[in-house]
Each structure stands twice: as C-alpha cells, then as structure tokens.
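Below is a typical protein record.
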Amino acid sequence: MKREFHFLIYLILAILLFIGSNDDRLKKAQFFSKTIYFPLVNSIQKFNSLFDLKEKNQILSKKLSEHTIKITELENILVEIENAKIYYDTGNYSHLLADIIGFKGEFRERCLILNKGKKNKIKLNYPVISNDGIVGKIISVSRNYSIVLPLDHSRFRLGVMSKRNHLQGIMKSDIIGNSYMTLIKPGSDIKVGDIIVTSQISSVFPKGFPVGEVTKLIENPADVFMSAKIQIFTNPSELDQTVVLFYEKDESYEEELKNN
C-alpha cells in the first residue's frame, strides 16, 4: 500500500512538472529541487562530492608517494656525498665509495662485506677508511664483492705512532674490541690525549692517517714493554658506507735486501 502511495505521489509530481511552458517547467523543477526533492538532490550532491574527494585523495596520495621516493633518493645522495668527504689529508690516491651490505663472523670478530670487488679494481690489502679515520683492510676479493678486516678485530695489526712526537708502536685489539698501542718502551714520552696515526712502517696504510686517541697508559714491571689503550675514531659496526683507497705500498726494498 505504501509503495503504491509513493508511486502515485511521484506520478502526480511528474505530471505537474510536464505541464506548462518550458519556463514554467524550469521554475517548478527548481522549486521541487529546493523543497520536495531536496533530500534526494542533496544526497546525490554529497555522493558526487565524496566521489570527487576520493579521486583527489588518490591523486594526492600518488603525488605524495612520488615526492617521498624523490626525497629519499636525494637524502641517500646527500649521505653518499657526506661519507665521501674525508676530513684529513689522503694524498692524491684514487678512492671508491662502497656500501657495507653484510657481515661475516660473530660479535666483535665480524668482518665487513662490501658491494665492490675486482670489477671495480679493488685488490687485496687495499686500505679502507671513513671520514673520521681508518676502518680496516681488504682481505678477500671476488668479482662483485670484497671483505674488510676491521681495525677492532683481534687479527688486525697495524704500525702506528704518536702524531705529537712520532713515537712508534704496533696497534692490536683484543677479542672484545678494545684497541691498544703496544711495544712501547717504558719511560717513553706518551700521554693520555695523544693522537695516534698510521706510521711509515704500516704495510697497508700511508703515513699519518688518524687511528684514535690515547685514553689510558698501562705499565707492568714484569713486562718488557708498556702499552696505551686507544679510543678508535671509527666504529666499524656503526658504518653503512666506507671508502676504499687505491693504495699499494712499495715493498721492493725487501727483495733488494734479500739479494744483498
């Protein structure tokens, strides 16, 4: 019954709309749209508005995603530029920025895996550095990857010296990552706060590359030598990129000495 009643009303309204001239029909249509049909017209308008908003939101979301990707790419480029900046003299040696893509080993004994290898002209024993100081040396190379032995590894050894007075020693680290300058004669002029750098006797690095700072002197009357604990400038486990230095030390003197 209700359906028939509604149908009858709509039929009467439709007939009323078609009666009269075009101007009369237009005026009646405008009147009905603001009164009887207002809820329906308003609902349709809101629906269309929501549809438009949804479409605009999709367009804006796509643009936002594109801008986010672009910003991320620019941030990565900026990070690469910062990581490639070296704040100490590295001479005129060529170098290559490489990403650390993995680790090999456990805890403090981990080596770093780089995404550069032989095809990038990387060789064994090439020094690896960061913008704060030395990182380690290349110990294995494949076509696309290479492995770095970091300076806080227990197998790492390095000729070092005090920057202040060129006092010589050998750097080594224990299994938990503490680093020391060893083979120092008792009574030598070394003090807390001295900066330690690579020395001329290093078989890997050029002379003068920053290593760390002396934080403690260790003397034992039973030992022939004393040692100095070093706070290294670079923590290899906190890096995501390194710089490989294209440097090979000239060791031809060794062959010459063998022949004499």
Remarks:
- The chain has two domains: 2-36, 95-249.
- The chain has a mean pLDDT of 81.
